[in-house]
Amino acid sequence: MTDFLLGSSTKLLTVAIRVKDRDQAIAFYRDVLGFELKREENELAIFGLKGLDREVLWLEESPRANDHFGEIKKMQRIVLAVSSLEEAATIASNAQQKAIAFEEARYEANQLGFIIADPEGNKIEVLFTAPAGTAVPKDEAELIKAAPAKAAGLSKEAHFGKLYLNVSDLAKEQLFLEESLGLKTKEAETKEFILNDGDFQVGLTEAQGGTIDLPSHEVLGLDFLKISISQEDIDTLEKHLSEKNQAFFIDKKRKLLTTYDAIGIEWWFIVKK
């Protein structure tokens, strides 16, 4: 196993999803999940959080991409961690009003989570963890009752905390995450990896078919991840990837480095001022 690790300031900035119908997708991520639509640029819809100067989510309209609706995707699901019961309850209430059913749900001692899908089948797990000793609703009906009268958008503390990927070759993707990017193994048996003991984790599930091994630019779904990195770390990463013979691109200003994982997801590392 490599000793290479990225610096502690390295954090997930943005998740980019390729969609067929941008208007439908905007309605879901804004009106159901509660993201704030910051602006639209050509084919892009750029979302953030109120009070936070950061682009959290990009939706890229790609009408010519192959649909593959109903087939297995590269992204199994992504976890949206919220900081309050009111936020989770508001999302649950919004989903009910738009006839979006929970695909899965769990209600534990001080934590609850439920999975809903956007109009194109991208799955979002909404997760709320209460302080130890604080009970949470025990079912969907009780959760919806906890929604405030005036629906609130997501707070600036909300974040994408974990990404679950479907991969056709577990060993190859694990090698990329550990050896190329330096993510730490969190759970060896469950194939879970963590970025610098931070808030972002990656879980792997072995699967076959669907869009898993198709080029990302040809299909809908997860497109790329944008990660902040220091200037020192991007220089170190460039040297490390070269030594590992991992293909990558770095711009002339040395502020952006991109590389692809085993299933064609692009990882962007960008130096933020």
Account of the protein in words:
The structure is a single chain. This protein is α+β, with helices and mostly antiparallel strands. The protein has one domain: 2,3-Dihydroxybiphenyl 1,2-Dioxygenase, domain 1 (Roll). It is 20% helix and 37% strand. The chain has helices at 22-32, 85-97, 140-145, 170-180, 231-243, and strands at 11-19, 36-41, 44-49, 52-61, 75-82, 104-107, 111-117, 123-129, 159-167, 184-187, 192-194, 201-206, 221-229, 249-250, 256-260, 266-271. Strands 2-3-4-1-13-16-15-14 form an eight-stranded mixed beta sheet. Strands 6-7-8-5-9-12-11-10 form an eight-stranded mixed beta sheet, covered by helices on one side. The two termini are 32 Å apart.
Strand order of the largest sheet: 2-3-4-1-13-16-15-14
* Principal-axis shape: globular
Major β-sheet annotation: 8 strands, mixed
Number of domains: 1
The named CATH superfamily: 2,3-Dihydroxybiphenyl 1,2-Dioxygenase, domain 1
Structural class: alpha+beta
Question: What share of residues are in beta strands?
Answer: 35-45%
N- to C-terminal distance: 32 Å
User: Which CATH-level-2 architecture?
Assistant: Roll
From the alpha-carbon coordinates, what is the Rg to the nearest angstrom?
19 Å
Write down the secondary-structure element order: EHEEEEHEEEHEHEEEEHEEE
Count of individual helical segments: 5
Instruction: Estimate the helix proportion, in percent.
Output: 10-25%
Question: Summary?
Answer:
It contains five helices and 16 strands.
Structural key phrases:
273 residues; eight-stranded mixed sheet; alpha+beta; 2,3-Dihydroxybiphenyl 1,2-Dioxygenase, domain 1; 5 helices
